[in-house]
Amino acid sequence: MPAVTFFPIGNADTCFIELANGRRVLFDFADMHNPDDKDDKRCDLEKEIRDRLNGDKEIDVVAFTHLDTDHCNRAKEVFWLQHAEKYQSDDRIKIKTMWVPATAILEEGVKGQARTLRTEARYRFVEKGEGIRVFGRPDALDDFLKERGVDPAKRRNLISDAGTLCPEFNQAADGVEFFVLAPFADHCDDDTYKRNDTAIFMQATFKVDERLTRLILSADCPHEVIDDIVRVTRKHGNDERLMWDINNVPHHSSYLSLGPDKGDEKTEPVERLRWLYEEQGQDGGLLVSTSSPIPDNDDSDQPPHRQAANYYKGVASELGGQFLVTMQHPSQKSPKPLTIEIGSKGYSVKKLAGGSAAIIGGAAPRAG
Amino acid sequence: MENGGKPAPRSPRVVALIKYIEGSVDYPFARIAALDFSGDSDIVDLLIEPELVQDRAVAISDIEPVRLVFPVRVDGPPSVFSQRADFPLDLVHTNYEPSGDGRCLCIWEENWHDLSRNLTAQRLIERIRDWFSRTASGELHNPDQPLEPMILATSSTLVVPPGHPPTEWHGVVVEDDEDRLTAVLDARPRKNGCRPVPFAIFSLEVEPQVHGALHHRPRDLQRLHDLVGEMGRDLLGTLEAWLFEQLPQGDRVIVLLISIPKRRTADGEVEAWEHWAFSPTEKIESLAQRLGLVERDPDTGRFGRLLTKAPVENLSEIALYGWRVVQRLDHATARLYAGNPADRGVSLVGIGAGAIGSNVMLNTKHAGIGKWTVIDSDINLPHNLVRQIHPDAMTGFPKAETTALLLDTCLAEGGDTHIRANFLAPGAAVEAVREAVGAADLTVDFSASPSVLGAVSDNAEIARAASFFFGPDGRDLVVLAEDKARALRLDEIEAYYFLCAGTDPLLADHLASARTDMVRYANACQDLTRPLPPWQVQALSGIAAGRLLSLLEEEQAVALIWRLEAGSGAVTPMELNLRPVRRHEFDDFRVTVSEAVIETMRRLREQRAPNETGGVLLGSFDLSRRVLHVVAALPAPPDSRQSPTYFIRGAKHLKPLVEGIEARSAGSIVYVGEWHSHPDGAKVEPSDDDEVVFKHLETHLDPTGAPYVMAICGAPETWIRAGWHSWRVGEGAMRHG
Lengths: 368, 737
Known about the structure:
The complex is a heterodimer.
Chain A: E1 3-6, E2 15-18, E3 24-27, H1 45-53, E4 58-63, H2 69-72, H3 75-78, E5 79-80, E6 93-101, H4 102-106, H5 112-128, E7 132-135, H6 139-147, E8 159-160, H7 171-174, E9 176-182, H8 185-188, E10 201-208, E11 211-217, H9 223-235, E12 244-248, H10 271-279, E13 281-289, H11 306-319, E14 322-325, E15 338-343, E16 346-349, H12 356-360
Parallel strand pairs in A: 3-4, 4-6, 5-6, 6-7, 7-8, 11-12, 12-13, 13-14
Antiparallel strand pairs in A: 1-2, 1-15, 2-3, 9-10, 10-11, 15-16
Helix pairs in contact in A: 9-10
Chain B: E1 2-3, E2 6-7, H1 12-23, E3 30-36, E4 41-48, E5 64-71, E6 79-82, E7 94-99, E8 102-105, H2 112-116, H3 121-137, E9 157-160, E10 170-177, E11 180-186, E12 199-205, E13 209-210, H4 221-230, H5 235-246, E14 253-263, E15 270-280, H6 284-290, E16 294-296, E17 303-305, E18 320-322, E19 324-327, H7 331-338, E20 346-351, H8 355-366, E21 370-376, H9 399-410, E22 417-420, H10 430-439, E23 442-445, H11 450-458, E24 465-470, E25 476-481, H12 490-503, H13 534-553, E26 558-564, E27 571-575, E28 581-585, E29 590-594, H14 595-608, E30 614-622, E31 627-633, E32 641-642, E33 647-648, H15 654-664, E34 670-677, H16 688-701, E35 708-713, E36 717-723, E37 730-735
Parallel strand pairs in B: 9-11, 9-19, 12-14, 13-14, 20-21, 20-23, 21-22, 23-24, 29-31, 34-35
Antiparallel strand pairs in B: 1-2, 3-4, 4-5, 5-6, 6-8, 7-8, 10-11, 14-15, 15-18, 16-17, 24-25, 25-26, 26-27, 28-29, 30-31, 30-34, 32-33, 35-36, 36-37
């Protein structure tokens, strides 16, 4: 049965989806742990992903929702990149199709991981004309192609607009479909290219037997963008595309993804977001905060914010579901990847006890 | 027990439970809410976090508060109570007696003896979590599923008795079918419902004869007299005296019954009896007259005894009509007719008189196996009748007693007895059970209970033990039997059988319908009723009975499985290739290592030399008996690192492999530790690195309550160290043969 896994990597996002037919999708890859720090509870993401690939060296789709470090850290160390030989050693993981927002192609003045991934995305999009899907179609993208001598019409098949299904997957063959909710072209035409505003925002709908289980992946979008997503999606009569059983809440439980005011104890969301969470959440709905543990004070301005978390907890409680935090699952003392199986009775959070299962799941210490 | 002024837990299971929850390396999905050791029981309040589906048949919560109440004086099952005020009671199976502790949840379906065998602290928690999970998903109790009633705890013929002829014969039954009679004789008159038999029976026992000495059948009185004379008896002289006694009822038909004791050699023991029966054409009075003993008074017409014997007519003219004499069956004759090659009857103990037990015991009884002592504590309930040998009239009576009665009456030779007792807890019957198994040539466990199998294995009074049971879906028959010398004990054979169930492709679905955390065979008395057709029960029981007979003639241990295809009726036999074991008796527990494990490690070691190699060890364990059987050593996963000075065991493909074996063996075969090789010339004792490996095992497994083993295979010998929660660590070396 299909399974969705979130990882304890602090305030960062990675979501690994394995389908019943064996195909795999990775949303973001942010390996944040510090191997030199014994007290770092963030997982060794590269190892976790490799374990799940079980020896395979290719992932069907790797999506970079946007190119912030907390969504792509160490990607250039782990993946096999087509644009330069130095990224092509045997042990690297190949990406069959790369998904990026249009801004990841257009953005200028980027450095580090983002620059390498931008180069890879441009290479696939402009030079190769395959192995990539670009989300959003601002006019600037056509200009970008024309400047490089490529007829935009010949890249049209590589671009997905909001309000469409990604052609890489379909429910009949894969048991899942991915519906693009954002980015919109007008967000991407902003001169400043705010990454969080133009990130990929999706709904995945799994189908097991006749049961549909819906997952929303909302990256780091602020409340204004989500408000817009709800407005436009509803305008097109696509309320169903905003229903959710599992919701990866945006931006590591930042209050700014709910509304403008943090609130004393609980953030009150803007109206359209209230509708999204309270009306579109299904019975037993699960909210996942991909973040550090929820603090019990307001010492830090950085997310997660306990007031936002309190709102999500309230939503979970009303739905008879739960609110889980990746760095607190199953315990804050020893967080582990959060695996959610999708079945004919909806989702279930895997809760496997350790013992021998833990020993044979990994290598033994060196014996002499 | 006081610990720093604070009451400490008294139940070792509570000690283990706390250690698991507080010390588990991985999160146990259970937290301790409160502890109370001040009362009559040890009380542990827990917050349980079950794995739940989104769509729930019953509104189970992500966190369920429960109270576990452990008995402190005996090792009994903890009661599990929901502590949630709004727990949806009507939707789940609970024990409905309200108590101060809340509502008691029916977590356990099997008896405590079976359950306690491998109920580590981790498995206890997992059982409770699993109960909530399956209750939530609606898998625990299908409303349509019938629940079995709960059970507290299956020419003319003369027929003569077998063996030594009685001092007095009584005709008890006669059937007259168109002049052909069938008459049944017995040592005692039958009380009710039998017509009197109008015969006068003259019996004469001759001197013992060597087997095969009898030849022609006499057809007249003279020849019979001569023949009996050759056998050391005076027929006529004896007959005359008898005739005088019988004169008052002079119109009765005479049956002359000659009993011949037979023996193999001239000075051998009498082994069997042959009976010849004849009826002269004359009745009592006229025979007496023809023998010159009496004369009819012409006036009165009555016979009077002659003072002087009259001349005897030619005895050859007194014709004899022969009866076909058949003996009712004793064990020896039953063996003969059943084609049972055994030359003697044996004493057996049968534990469990349910579907397989009652049928196999009765079947082998028919084959003259000998005498059974039936041990069972249950009573017959109506649903039992479909599978067992008992008629409706025995419903409500004890299985042991009724089974012994049916065995005892199925042949003319009885001797079958019963002990109404639970073999695991015989109570007042403890001495009777001890005597019975001590006197038996073979003790057969038909109980379908792994814990009985374990207890039989451990019982030193038993001469030899076997276990017969059906697979969980009732289509496979399993026979496990020790060798005559008990070099291989039943539990060691069972461990290997579980390994085969987990690994042999032919047995891939053998235990498929067993729960993964619980082995429960088809005829377990507390089982849910499974539709198990009587023909299948009897077909497999028949095979089982046949194998039991041949088992008695064999020396070696066996593990055999038959699979019945219900559609075609085809039966496929399988024999498991048993290997000897090495036993290590440590202070508090026992570890056995199959010779196959040592051979595998040695072979892989040779293949990889000069590099070190290794892998994981698989085995089964019984927590209550403190026994661990190491049954398999797996080769190094492909991502392992193997060098002349070290070995790092990888993990590629390992988890699905081990978990697959565990699932196919119904949770019996599990990971128990690590092995690796040492090169030629190196000691087999652990290096500093190896101590880290053992510590790794201890860290992960000790809190769970499961045992763990590290083995090091060198050139001359293999060294092992085993550890087990709350008990000490044991070490030992095994020289290579």
